[in-house]
Design goal:
The structure is a single chain. This protein is α/β, with parallel strands linked by helices. The chain is built from 17 helices and 5 strands. The protein folds into 2 domains: 104 residues, Conserved hypothetical protein from pyrococcus furiosus pfu- 392566-001, ParB domain, CATH 3.90.1530.10; 163 residues, no CATH class. The protein is 58% helix and 7% strand. It is elongated and about 65 Å long.
């Protein structure tokens, strides 16, 4: 029996053409941040000089561009605004010499880097071009999928991926394309668990999301807090919304501080959350002290910050990185300042150096 012969498959770039830099339109997209250091490196890589000292201005990967007529552009921009909550206006977009609107799908960093080089080298932006993989009249939903795929190759941060997933899901629900999370999973290059965790993460308060972005709180541990937040919404459903949000934030921050202080893994957090939810179920009929919950939550939060003090100088630094103290009542700030001074005195020279006028603690307690 003859052996089967494997066929070759070929990967290629299609529809690559030189597009005028000045004709390209930059709208909202899944990547929200551009680190200055990374941009500087990208500029240097594109401009790298040859053996004669001349700039090569070489781009290894073309950007992705959608070329649309007026009618398709109006639909595309309306869908993009719906997805990202933006208010882009077609009349404010640049129109090419061919009458079409060219919108960047992916490659925003490369476009920005080339713009810096055009200015640096004194070139004419209307004559300068970028190699681009061009699609014609691509619908926003298809462009969004291409953008997420491309950014997956470019290693978006875990929080940016989460927000891209959330934007895709919300857009699908709003347009009727999705009826449930599995519909979104089928449309993205991610598994069911990753999509569900991303949606849970995006439900967390902005404060906790920022702690994850800044490297203080592990992503998985933060995601594990979401059931606790959902339970809180039910537990305090009778409390006015503003008060309820304050209570939830205080308790969630206190738990986040415990995660940092005790270095809890996601499994530890899930166990902790399950214990809390079970205790709430047993106390579901007890509402006598509910109106004091905010005061209790703030006391718990303060106790968690004190745990950081007890952990030594490294955890003390984390406390200041999080700037937990600056939004506490003044009397609590005074109490913490006094405790800090006593603590610093015991630690000697290393801690004393931190208490200078330029130290993080001086900044936090002064605000």
């Amino acid at each position: 029996m003859a052996e089967a012969v494997a066929e070759a498959i070929h990967f290629e770039l299609k529809h690559v053409q030189a597009v005028s830099w000045a004709e390209l339109n930059v709208l909202s997209q899944t990547r929200k941040t551009m680190q200055p250091e990374g941009m500087d490196e990208l500029v240097r890589a594109i401009e790298a000089v040859d053996t004669h000292g001349q700039a090569r201005n070489e781009l290894f990967h073309p950007i992705m561009v959608n070329s649309l007529d007026r009618e398709a552009t109006e639909k595309y921009v309306a869908d993009l605004n719906l997805c990202h909550g933006t208010d882009h206006d077609v009349d404010q977009l640049r129109q090419g010499d061919d009458g079409r609107y060219k919108i960047i799908i992916a490659g925003h960093r490369r476009h920005a880097a080339i713009g810096r080089l055009i200015e640096k080298q004194g070139a004419d932006p209307t004559l300068s071009t970028i190699p681009s993989s061009v699609d014609e009249n691509l619908e926003f939903r298809d462009a969004l999928r291409k953008q997420i795929d491309e950014n997956t190759h470019q290693s978006l941060s875990v929080t940016e991926v989460a927000r891209a997933i959330q934007a895709t899901y919300r857009y699908g629900i709003a347009t009727g394309s999705y009826a449930s999370i599995p519909d979104c999973v089928r449309d993205l290059p991610f598994g069911d668990e990753k999509v569900r965790n991303a949606l849970k993460f995006c439900e967390l308060p902005v404060t906790l999301q920022e702690w994850v972005e800044n490297g203080h709180l592990p992503y998985g541990s933060a995601v594990a807090l979401q059931p606790m937040m959902a339970g809180m919404r039910n537990r305090y459903a009778h409390v006015p919304e503003d008060e309820r949000e304050k209570i939830m934030l205080e308790y969630l921050i206190a738990t986040g501080l415990s995660i940092i202080n005790h270095r809890w893994s996601a499994s530890n957090v899930r166990s902790h959350v399950n214990e809390i939810l079970e205790s709430w179920r047993k106390e579901s009929d007890l509402t006598l002290f509910m109106m004091d919950e905010l005061k209790i939550a703030r006391a718990v939060r303060q106790e968690r910050t004190r745990e950081l003090f007890a952990g030594g100088i490294n955890r003390l630094r984390k406390f200041f990185d999080l700037e937990v103290g600056k939004d506490l009542p003044l009397e609590q700030q005074e109490a913490l300042r006094e405790e800090l001074e006593n603590f610093a005195a015991k630690l000697g020279g290393a801690a004393a150096a931190l208490s200078g006028a330029e130290s993080p603690m001086a900044f936090n307690f002064a605000n």
